[in-house]
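Input record (one chain):
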Amino acid sequence: MIVPSIDLRHGRAVQLRRGREHALDGGDPFDRLEEFAVAGEVAIVDLDAAMGTGSNASVITELVARAPCRVGGGIRTLDAAMEWLDAGAAKVVIGTAATPEFCAALPRDRVVAAVDAERGEVVVEGWQTRTGRDVLGAVEQLAPHVGGFLLTQVEYEGMMGGFDRGLIERVAGAAGGARVTAAGGITTAAEVAELDAMGVDAQVGMALYTGKLSLADAVAAPLVEPAGGLWPTVVCDEEGRALGLVWSSRESLARAVSERRGVYWSRSRGALWAKGETSGNTQELLRVDLDCDRDALRFVVRQHGAGFCHRGTRTCWGDDFDLGALERLVAARAGDAAPGSGTAKLLGDPRLLRSKLLEEAGELADARSPAEATHEAADLLYFLLVALQARGGTLAHVRRELERRSRRVRRRPMAAKPEGES
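The corresponding structure, as predicted from the sequence alone:
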């Protein structure tokens, strides 16, 4: 699989050659994240922190809040590692500080040990200091304590001239069950596919920034060539609910990834079709996932309009009721000026909405039976959705925030606020 990389220097996305020479300015890191997140997890590297010349913490905090990211560069204390995990980083990448004792103090599945190698020797402190340690020995020592390794071949980094396959194979063998991600010199879709066949992910920066490797080709690289040239594609919304089953070709996948919208292959018409071009029920493509056998796709989309199905329903299995359906109903009624529209009245009267929220929260807190709790929770959920609508929030925002909080390692103490304190 491809892991796109955003290397940060002075708040900008950059690319270096061999970790030393500035090669190019990659622009606004938030634009890059929006582009790259369709491929899944994105690697964020704080070069300033790694080199001891500064920090991009404020930028990274916002990046982590927007999409799943693994964060590395200059994380040399347990406190710093915990801070990034608590902030919502999917994983932390530990380099100079990666010892068995350090890594064992963190959740194993969320720790990636960065093993930076120059001609088989481990280098640290932003690749500036040689250690004399052998790469395979370092990997074997850390393997019981980490969920993954990032192997960067420094001499190939940013050069777009290939990499040492033999070293990667040996590291993958020494890593045991820990997943290896390789970086440095990876340039083509064929190389991404070759690494995936080894069970190794490919972290790529320079080739993506220069256009030598397209993100669409990189995403498609591990896929098994299908009979008839089409992959079954399950389309899901942001809550993970299946909207329908369609088909993707290499051409449609390339269009979908580059344009970040729902583009598929129509078997009946024998042509590409972009969802919503005629109906107006468009889709924003948020992420493409490959299944474990590399022979099927999942598109995670933000569905607009009536729904996915050509019959005007949310899904190809009809319209079931869920919180998403209630949210859409609240949104539809937000502009309803018809007499008696309670939702419109609440949206137009912030004091009334606040009063109802406090009232229903109190009634839920005082509920004594399952039936009472169910009734009051339903009331409160409705008013919560109205409050979200009034402030421009969505359930998707809430879900992302809850997901971020679920990644916390350290828990805040649960205590009541003093009476009257907001």
